User: What shape does this take?
Amino acid sequence: MIEAVFKPVLSGYPLSELQELLHPLPRFRVKQIFSWISRGVRSFAEMTDLSQSLRADLGERFSLYASEVAARLKDPDGTEKLQISLRDGCLIEAVLLTDGEERRTACLSTQAGCPQGCVFCKTGALPFRRNLDSAEIVEQFLHLRGAAADGDADANTISNIVIMGMGEPMLNLAELRRAVSVFTASEGFGLSGRRITVSTSGIAAGIRDLADNGPRVRLALSLTTADTALREHLMPVTKSNPLPEVKAALQHYQQCEGRRITLEMVLLGGLNTRREDVDALQAFIRGLDAVINLIPWNPVEGMSFAGRPLREPEPGELAAFMAELEQRGIAFTRRYRKGRTIGGACGQLGGMREPYSLTTRDRVSTSTPSPVTSTSFSRRQPPWTGS
Ligand code: SF4
Assistant: This one.
């Protein structure tokens, strides 16, 4: 089979790499090009402080973008979701969140699909395709910023980035590093690492790598439950990354970074809102500087666990869980849910229109970690679900 040959895409190059790629262009010229890219120009012709011949030469040898917006949905609450088409046909999604104070946050994906198979997550039920490269990560930000600016010149700012979209960032740390280097360069986007949060399902080696080698960003762990037996079913990554190892890695991160960690708890009705879950959480946070973020599950049609449809916690169930946390002095926040009507909320990505077909072949990959789907877990009957 003949594979398509694509020109190198400049949007994902950190400044130092761009300098090497464009050698022997002088450094100030490379900085100009880097700056134009971060301003979101769509063609080399728009780089008006470069000579005509240089613009033509760049256009011959390179591309500016590796992706394009395929579809766009807007929730009445202001959340926007973009479906983005990559050059090989993969589809990914990115979300723009706006809070009441006009702070805009870009939620970006790092993989097409996800091999982690968390049973409550739509993305985890899709076949894993591949890691994204840094251009494909950076361009999600550019596309979202373009959407934010649409018809509103003052809206052309995104203040925060959360790496909480499709995929497990720690499985694609090298390309994420390059993308963060682009985001934080003062010659370009100029975002502080304090405004970038990377969320992991709990890969201890990745957390240690991040702590030891950067980038210096905020860290969130999608914990969901600290009860190992339940978590092994809800988040299969727990089997290869036991919670004590994950906790030790988090403590190492905190020693290196001195930053508070966010522990995200996706609350599933009748599953992880038990007193035992609070007990386990209380033990897990001992020795950690962490804030708990409660996320009542955002419904995704057709998702089940242990033969039963997943559901949101009942209001009383949620209230009781929060009261138990309060009684024990465990500080928490409750995430304001956004983008649910467009499948743009936490755990819903991958549903704009069905971009993949779930085939047996897709579910079994020889070159990547084996994706575990929610359906494979729905056959099990763990003891806590009753008969
Ligand atoms: S929650 Fe995150 S790590 Fe788990 S399947 Fe979904 S995208 Fe992957």
The first helix runs from residue 15 to 21. Residues 114, 116-118, 121, 123-124, 166-168, 201, 222 surround iron/sulfur cluster (CB under 6 Å). Residues 353-387 have pLDDT under 50 and may be disordered. The first strand starts at residue 67 and ends at 74.
